[in-house]
Specification:
mainly alpha
Length: 142
């Protein structure tokens, strides 16, 4: 008798590719992270129809996640700059920290909302039945 190995879907490809937390297929954003037109977040999932903004002002909670991202980035950069340059000049730190935070601002905006939807929203879970018929899309995410 052959043993059937069933592959489990993981949440990580859905988070990295900014996919819907309910079906893991539909996009959350309409355009790329770094584009001249800015980041346009879709109102509903194009695959399952889930409304992303659960209530008015829902994404204000993402500011706390973004704050945690920025603190982690600044601490890491400050320590890295200190180790690499050994400088005591505050302008070196100011230039490096502000430059990198400015570059990572679109990343922080996008992924703070994605993490808020995937991990920090009570009652919002993955429904595998909504992904039926889209196995090829999900397998391409890996």
């Amino acid at each position: 008798m052959k043993k059937v190995v069933k592959k489990e879907l993981t949440m990580w490809p859905a988070i990295v590719n900014a996919k819907c937390p309910k079906c893991w297929v539909g996009n959350i954003y309409a355009n790329p992270m770094y584009s001249l037109s800015g980041q346009k977040m879709l109102t509903n999932c194009p695959h399952c129809g889930m409304t992303y903004e659960r209530e008015p002002g829902y994404f204000y909670g993402a500011m706390y996640v973004s704050y945690a991202f920025i603190v982690a980035e600044l601490v890491t950069l400050a320590i890295g700059t200190s180790i690499l340059t050994g400088s005591d000049n505050p302008w070196v730190y100011t230039a490096v920290l502000l430059g990198v935070v400015g570059i990572l601002a679109p990343f922080n905006l996008r992924y703070s909302r994605v993490i808020l939807l995937h991990w920090l929203t009570p009652g919002l879970h993955y429904h595998p039945e909504l992904s039926k018929g889209s196995e090829t899309i999900i397998s391409n995410l890996r």
